[in-house]
Amino acid sequence: MNMFAPAACRVRAISAPTRRAPPVISTTWSRNEEFSILGFMRKHDTPMAPQRELMGRQREPGLNEAQAGHCARMHSHLREQIDAGGGWLSFERFMDAALYAPGLGYYSAGARKLGAGGDFTTAPEVSSLFGACIARQCAQILSALGGGSLLEIGAGSGRLAADILSRLETLGALPDTYRILEISADLRERQRRHLEQSLPHLLGRVQWLDQPPQEPFDGIVLANEVLDALPVARFRWHRAGVEALGVVIEDGHFAWAPRPAAPAMAEVCRRLSESGGAWDDGYVSEYCPRLIDWTRGVTQSLRAGAVLWFDYGLPRSQYYMPERHEGTLLCHFQHRAHADPFRYPGLQDITAWVDYTLLAEASRTAGFALSGFTTQSYFLAGLGVHEEMQFMAGGDDNRFARLANEARQLMLPGEMGERFKAMAWLRGLDLPMSGFALQDLRHTL
Ligand SMILES: C[S@@+](CC[C@H](N)C(=O)[O-])C[C@H]1O[C@@H](n2cnc3c(N)ncnc32)[C@H](O)[C@@H]1O
Fold it and tell me: Which CB contacts under 8 angstroms, 24+ apart, belong to 388-391?
């Protein structure tokens, strides 16, 4: 997967860490739940800045010397890309560069990213219960296959890998190998250190890959919060015609600039508008042109087994509702979320929600059967999260209370329980999976 390209930056004061309701509408969670506040900003948290912000090059408060220097280098790099494109760069290429430009992009350079001292937290960082439940699902699949290997894409701090391996060991269901496809060199090191410290005796089973495995294998491919980083194309809808939103330099700053969409983009938008409802003139959103090819690429060598995707997202009809007229772009910097991708390119994460209908379409293209789609909450409940809490607490009431609190963060609708979904694809295997037994949302896709 070559997602490398360019990006830029300027730094301006970032909004206070207040949160407001996301640009997303749920049919089941309450507004009060949307406003709930946790200690750390999770990756799905809410934007609060205007969509259009300009960027300068002067150093602003909040960035240290190294960060300001990084920002300046990124700015020059992106500026070159914009110049090379005749003064206009598609947003998809801008996002690609901002996240993946070698040595400069958010995932290619050395930012801490996850956890305290980073920019956001994720389900495995919230609780080992997440990995323990996934391990139960993996044990079921590996048992049906008679063994196999795991491939995790984008392993972050390595916690999920450690939690899964540790629980699989106690379940007597260790995989032959646990491979990690990780784009970030510094996160690889962090993963290695975490696994060395937590499971030194299992380190021999763990391998890091630079590209998807080429040789066929049986087992499981899984990824938590990776799809949301795939660069998206941004568009503005008008009855008279669709515009592609790209990036230009205005007075030395980045700015949004429209140009008439190519026929292929106009056609995609026409189809999206049909599933979402009547859009007003000026409706802005995004889609992920590379999701189908990328998911096929990372799953192609799985001969028999399951692919498990976890991320925040919606079925297409909800994603492209008329009310969500600014799309779902979201950036994270030091546990604050905002909607301005121009603010700290190279230093901030940029994400968009997953169109799960597109991911379901991708399963067919990649030769899999779509076998489950549910919320994170129901996935964890189906796998016996309560039993896991008891197992992990080992009779210690204080520990049980802590785990109960973590489970709430993972499962409540206003926390991570509903916005995050789980999807499973199967190939060469027919298996009713426990994680999808309690709720089947495939009809919504
Ligand atoms: C938001 S973090 C999630 C980390 C971890 N899965 C978790 O849940 O804590 C995204 C992870 O995916 C990795 N990543 C991003 N884009 C990737 C790509 N195209 N290929 C492989 N890894 C990628 C990042 O380096 C990082 O490890």
Answer: 388/129, 388/132, 388/133, 388/136, 389/129, 391/132
Q: Among the atoms of ligand 1, which is closest to the Cα of residue 107? A: 25
Pocket test for ligand 1, best of 42, 159, 182 (most atoms within 8 A of CB): 182
Mean pLDDT of the region 36-59: 37
Instruction: Compute the average pLDDT of residues 226-242.
Output: 96
Identify the pLDDT of residue 118. 80
Q: Which two tokens stand for residue 207?
A: 């391998």
Q: What are the Cα distances from residue 270, in Å, to 86, 236, 243, 277?
A: 28, 11, 12, 11
Closest CA to ligand 1's atom 24:
154
Least confident window among 98-102, 109-113, 350-354, 381-385: 109-113
Q: Who lines ligand 1 at CB under 6 A?
A: 1, 3, 43, 107, 114, 122, 124-125, 153-156, 160, 181-184, 187, 224-226, 229
- For residues 390-412, give the mean pLDDT: 97
**Closest ligand 1 atom to the C-alpha of 1?**
19
Strands 243-250 and 283-287, bridge-based pairing = unpaired
Predicted local confidence at residue 54, as pLDDT: 31
| Token pair recorded at residue 297 | 């690429």
229 CA to middle of ligand 1, Å?
8
Range of lowest pLDDT (31-40, 338-347, 422-431): 31-40
